[in-house]
From TrEMBL:
Xref: InterPro entries: Epimerase_deHydtase, NAD(P)-bd_dom_sf
Top-level lineage group: Bacteria
Protein species of origin: Roseivivax halodurans JCM 10272
Protein's name according to its UniProt entry: Dehydratase
SUPFAM superfamilies found in the cross-reference section: NAD(P)-binding Rossmann-fold domains (SSF51735)
Stretches assigned to the NAD-dependent epimerase/dehydratase domain: 3-193
Family matches, as Gene3D superfamilies: NAD(P)-binding Rossmann-like Domain
Length: 299
């Protein structure tokens, strides 16, 4: 496919873009900062400007494309990861404005140009736990996509608004628009630098519902979405199979969620951020674990 990928220079994108490139896709990275990755074209775009978004989706991405008589300026899919990535980077209002307007502009242009597949980054924060003030526990465990989304901050608000925007555009266009409620993205080098501390202090992971997603497995998730047609509008939790701490899921439940209803029995180290829907509908099959990087046996 020829794919416009927004935010490919960010923490998640810089792993997902080369993953997709290595699968044979042609990628144009629309970002304010270049990725500088081999065989990936960089295009500086302010996504909050609808004209720039429309232009990016209707032009060639590089000089080599101009020299190729068979090259098309038509994109087959849009993957939208660009965003202010959390609260406390800029003002709350600017976080909300940037994320909501960028997503509206990207989806509107893609749909009106007849692009049939849009994948966008939503967030674990939609469930209201990550950036809540004080302690907020899930309504039940494990947390699946039916759990209420009650955002407690401007970043989460923007992601919920983006899901509503996506649902609306899908309803009137019929294209496939998939939202990824991405958990805490972990780059491979962070396992050795950060996870030993998490083993000693599992409470540090409560805001992420004790879950994580390896950046490489996030690339696999996007691949699954690109390969799956006909679902219309859907949102998917995205995480790895296991929790991000060394204690069992039963011990986590007893220590941190003693009064939270459990909808089913869980495996010994199973994530509390359910990925069953993505496994069932997309064939999502994450491969990586922090245990591999730390030389620990997998359960």
């Amino acid at each position: 496919m020829r794919i416009l990928f927004t935010g490919g220079s960010g923490k998640a994108g810089r792993h997902v873009v080369p993953y997709l490139r290595d699968l044979g896709h042609t990628i144009v990275n629309a970002d304010l900062h270049p990725l500088g990755e081999r065989d990936v074209d960089d295009l500086k775009v302010d996504l909050t400007d609808s004209g720039q978004v429309w232009g990016a989706l209707t032009q060639h991405g590089s000089i080599p494309e101009l020299d190729d008589p068979e090259a098309s300026d038509r994109f087959d899919a849009v993957v939208h990861f660009a965003a202010v990535p959390r609260i406390l980077i800029t003002s709350d209002g600017e976080t909300y404005r940037t994320n909501v307007m960028a997503t509206y502009n990207v989806i509107e242009a893609a749909v009106k140009l007849g692009i049939r597949k849009v994948i966008f980054a939503s967030s674990e924060t939609t469930y209201g736990i990550c950036f809540a003030k004080g302690e907020k526990r899930p309504d039940y465990i494990p947390v699946d996509e039916e759990h209420p989304v009650v955002p407690h901050d401007s970043y989460a608000m923007s992601k919920v608004a983006n899901e509503v925007t996506a649902r609306s555009f899908q309803a009137r266009s019929g294209v496939d628009i998939y939202g990824l409620r991405i958990n805490n993205v972990i780059e491979p080098h962070e396992y050795k630098s950060d996870f030993p501390t998490y083993l000693q202090h599992p409470e540090m992971r409560r805001r992420n519902i004790f879950a994580y997603i390896d950046a490489r497995d996030l690339g696999h998730m996007v691949e699954c979405c690109l390969n799956t047609d006909g679902l219309g509008f859907e949102v998917f939790n995205v995480a790895n199979r296991d929790t991000s701490v060394g204690v069992t899921s039963q011990e986590i439940a007893e220590t941190f969620y003693p009064d939270v209803p459990k909808t089913r029995e869980m495996d010994e180290f199973e994530t509390f951020y359910s990925i069953e829907k993505a496994q069932r509908l997309l064939g999502f099959d994450p491969k990586h674990s922090w245990r591999d990087a730390l030389g620990m046996e997998r359960p």
